[in-house]
Design goal:
The structure is a homodimer of 415-residue chains. Chain A has 415 residues and is α/β, with parallel strands linked by helices. In chain A, strands 10-9-11-8-7-12-13 form a seven-stranded parallel sheet, with helices on both faces. In chain A, strands 5-4-3-6 form a four-stranded parallel sheet, with helices on both faces. At the A-B interface, helix 10, helix 15, strand 13 and strand 16 of A face helix 10, helix 15, strand 13 and strand 16 of B.
Chain lengths: 415, 415
């Protein structure tokens, strides 16, 4: 039996035990995991050193190496995140609906763990702990398939976490790490219907595309964000500048940052220049439509492909539009249904934008950067779903549960 | 452009209009559709006659022809079903959550239509109307791909429904029928990401398997049911007999009927014979384990494959088990997570069964045949989901909606 199938089968067996664990038992296990990470920080950072060394030998960039790197402080922060999750409400085992039928049947809809969750992700070893904590908190088991660049770190972290579970009520087999570095182990996970209940990809566009295109196991897609900000005619110039600047510059590498700024033609002549100067001063490259270039000589000519690109970088498309309709049409064509914003003083335009834009999160007068589980007050974030089924937008712990109908009768049969 | 892509694009354009329709406008359209069906019953039954004639020439069985057949009375019943849907609450546009954040952001989570729904189904032309009604009621548009056996009926029905929409606020393009009878039109629908928001298969196991295995568009699986009834030691013999008989015989062709009866070894000697006689008298073929065959000489020997088969027919597996654990293990191995039942007088055993069985609907002392949107009081049924994401078990109208976060601010940016 392959490593993937064997470990997934162990996770499925453990899922039946996890389903019986109380909230207290699960929280105690998360705290034990956090304590163990802190206690074992030296062996974890030592294993991490091997990944860093190999990465450097392979010519990995220093910025990627920094994302991979662990030290005592970072391990402590990862452990603290587990403790925070332990303190959150347990979304499993809740009564969601309860009703009696005229024939006397009592029907109760409860939330239950999804079962076995496959997580496919890239380099950062904190995701290993984070994903394990979120899955266990919600009564699930997890099969982790991290990037090979972090394999030594992940292997040691998982030893520590499984070791910690030995001292708790939870089964150590609830956490499984796939160590096979070949792409074939990912492909095998994607087809593991019957063993995995869901696969969640976390990573770049190509990782997610591979999962979505090839999985027969159900997927929760945490996908790309080509986010827009539309500055309407009546926008407050300072507010528009602050929101656009924040959406682009505060953290360009993430999915809720802005890729294209749409500006009403009546706003642009007086205010776009100043806004563009602020972006240029922050080293943002501007690619503009013809009318934009007429106002901002430093702008390069934008292409169709640019409008359809998630840069995740200090690059911004700017297009001047005739009106709200043209902005809506642009977003309908190029948007990825993630986060979209209108800056306007016109309530009717705001209402139209909020209603007509088909996206997970639609903003009026606020930065798209707020699309985030923590910013929404969920206390944790599984990811940001860009699909429409099951969960949409920032996902808190309830996204890792499903439901079950319990029906109690006294011999009812169907007539 | 292919027929599929062209019609899906029209449906997507219409979805933007549908999203603006009020509950009253949608309900008025459903009533207009119902009236038009009744008014046009003659042309519909006449088109249906062509399907029946061709089916008979092709050697289609009379029972299948009966499912395909329309007459004035059946058309009236189909129209009445639309009127019922018009009378149900609108699940779209509801405020699901609303909260303010410390930074002043006002976040509201509302229910919205999914968008464009692809429906792939088999022969019965009533599904054409049913699916169109459910999708329009929830503010969606629909691309219908019915079985080629009903193509003349479906074509005329869709003409009538679209014609009815001409007189309403709703866009006729909200209903699209794929007429291409080749399997390739199904395959194309399954990959239509960006145009279809979800695909819902309704039909037999092979149709559903094809959709699940090949779709890159998200799927709501309405799947197979290998349902079990476990008769515990303490079960009331008459209740056990009534429930098992009902679960098998009342309508064997449907997914919530029973395929395997599990009987506690302490119950079997005194009561199984009588129950089996009742089933045999109703022309049920029994396939039993060795211990069953010792009690019921007419039972054939059951195989592993039998336990894993959804008969949808007058055939039943019977297995005598040592205890509840063995019953739980059997269901864990062969069940399809649809509907499972325990008949018992022992509350502790009932509680364990309800908690430990991983299925959409788990019954204590009632027939599995109740897993049904109408029996649950939902007033409509999209299907019965056997997946864990988005919706599980009988799906009412809310399963055809997703959510959207609306965030209102006053210039908030992220620090």
């Amino acid at each position: 039996m392959s490593e993937v199938r064997e470990k997934a089968a162990l996770a499925k067996q453990a899922a039946a035990i996890m389903n019986r664990m109380t909230t207290e038992q699960k929280n105690a296990a998360l705290l034990a995991m956090a304590d163990a990470l802190v206690r074992e920080h030296a062996s974890i950072t030592s294993a991490n050193g091997l990944d860093i060394k190999r990465g450097r030998e392979n010519g990995t960039s220093e910025s990627l190496l920094d994302r991979l790197k662990l030290n005592e402080q970072r391990v402590a922060a990862i452990a603290d995140a587990l403790r925070l999750v332990a303190g959150l409400p347990d979304p499993a085992g809740q009564v969601l609906e309860s009703f009696d039928r005229p024939n006397g049947l009592q029907i109760t809809k409860i939330s239950v763990p999804l079962g076995v969750i496959g997580m496919i992700y890239e380099a950062r070893p904190n995701v290993t702990v984070d994903a394990a904590g979120l899955c266990l908190k919600t009564g699930n088991t997890v099969v982790l398939r991290g990037g090979s660049a972090a394999i030594e770190s992940n292997r040691r972290i998982i030893e520590v976490l499984r070791g910690a579970l030995e001292e708790t009520a939870l089964p150590p087999d609830a956490i499984q790490l796939i160590e096979d570095p070949n792409r074939s182990s990912v492909d095998e996970m994607l087809k593991l219907n019957g063993l995995l209940d869901v696969v969640i990809p976390r990573g770049g566009a190509s990782l997610i595309r591979n999962v979505v295109d090839n999985a027969t196991v159900p997927v929760i897609e945490t996908g790309a964000g080509i986010c827009h900000t539309f500055v309407d005619e009546s926008a407050d110039p300072q507010m528009a500048s602050d929101i656009a600047f924040n959406a682009k510059v505060q953290r360009p590498s993430v999915c809720n940052s802005m890729e294209t700024l749409l500006v009403h033609e009546a706003f642009a002549p007086d205010h776009l220049r100043l806004l563009a100067d602020r972006l240029l001063a922050a080293n943002v490259e501007i690619r503009g439509c013809e009318r934009t270039s007429a106002l901002i000589p430093k702008a390069k000519a934008v292409t169709e492909e640019d409008y359809a690109t998630e840069y995740n970088d200090y690059i911004l498309n700017i297009r001047i539009v005739n009106n709200l309709d043209e902005a809506l049409a642009h977003i309908g064509k190029y948007g990825t249904m993630h986060s979209e914003c209108i800056v306007t003083g016109n309530q009717a335009n705001a209402a139209r934008f909020l209603q007509e834009i088909d996206a997970a999160a639609v903003y009026h007068n606020a930065s798209t950067r707020f699309t985030d589980g923590f910013e929404f007050g969920y206390g944790a974030e599984i990811g940001i779903s860009t699909q429409k089924l099951h969960a949409r937008g920032p996902m808190g712990l309830p996204a890792l549960t499903t439901t079950k109908f319990l029906i109690s009768g006294s011999g009812q049969i169907r007539g």
